[in-house]
Amino acid sequence: MSIREISAGELSVIIERGGVVIDVRESDEYLEGHVPGAVSIPLGSVPDSVEQFRKTVPVYVICASGGRSMRACEFLHDAGVTNVVNVAGGTMGFAGLGNPLTTGDQP
Question: Which of 56, 66, 59 is nearest to 91 (CA)?
Fold first, then answer.
């Protein structure tokens, strides 16, 4: 199984183009700061939320640094969702490049 992956630096272009981003960090982490437009589905909720990842376009999965999002992608791939893409470097990498984060519960 090979999970597609992009860098945190490539995510800016994806966001500008209206790409679908799902943040699998815990709710408190999401509230503190997330990638603009990202929807929160904590990792523990992914098995109950598989259908939210089934899209006709790629779904970019992000966490803090890339580990939890890769686990989510692997689970989803095993569940037959093959359009998921892991964001290596995660939210920390995205912010570390000087990109702004959104706070609160709104994407």
Answer: 66
